[in-house]
Fold these 2 entries.
Entry 1:
Amino acid sequence: MPSGQDYLTMIGQFAPLVVLIILFYFLLIRPQRKRDKAEREMRNSIEVGDEISTIGGFIGRVVNVKDDVLIIESSSDRTKLKIYRWAIRGKEAPATETVEAPKEADKSDK
């Protein structure tokens, strides 16, 4: 029959492993779950008219939303792209002005 000293030795051997598992949970697993949840909520909150960017680098305005598929307009010539909801990186601030060509280029052509 093991004595009380033996039980303390066994607990002492496993204590660092338990502390390491708890540390991994609070430093790695829990923050990743929070980020995943925030990302999922952002993707589910996308509505028509929102300006978004995709993981492929496209930026556009949402025109239509159906389940997991969105249709976005990507430029002023109204190019439409069909993308999956999981391919959205984030919402962008709406563009308020368009980029114009520099006026110096117009003078050099004349």
Note: Strands lie at 51-54, 59-66, 69-73, 80-84, 88-91.
Entry 2:
Amino acid sequence: MARVNLVDKASAPAGSRAALEQIQGAFGMVPNMFKAVANSPAALQSMWGSFAALGAGTIGAKLGEQIAVAVADRNDCNYCLAAHTVLGQKAGASAAEMAEAQTGLSSDPKTRAALAFVINVVENRAAITAANVQSLRAAGFDDGAIVEILAHVALNLFTNYVNVAFDVPVDFPGVKLSRSA
């Protein structure tokens, strides 16, 4: 049971209702994570707005979802791992590619470089080096894409913390954390 109320559109604060309508339209339902965050209109607007902004970014939906599962696996976030595995497959990744991404692996060198950077950022709480950033440049990312990768990490830390801290029930098909295997 979640540690905060999972609000529906009818019982949500007025400031959350428009975002919940958009989320319903995007997913065909309102996932439990958004129901938890909808308790705060400001938090919901921040989260949903970040998803929209990064979804229109330059690194692509597939890599964004691969980043999400790598971060989720590091933070033991079953909710985000399940949700982003589904979303990654909708973005064109295979089940195997999403499973590899959990552990920071990819057969694509550019994706592998991005995931290695992401894992380094999460595991070292952003205490990275110039060489870490240079490895992304060497893989073909420009500064805009590098900042966008870090923005994906930050957004996923937010969602992971919401789901883990509030014990939000998973409403996507479950995926096993690689680190618990």
Note: DSSP finds nine helices and no strands in the chain.
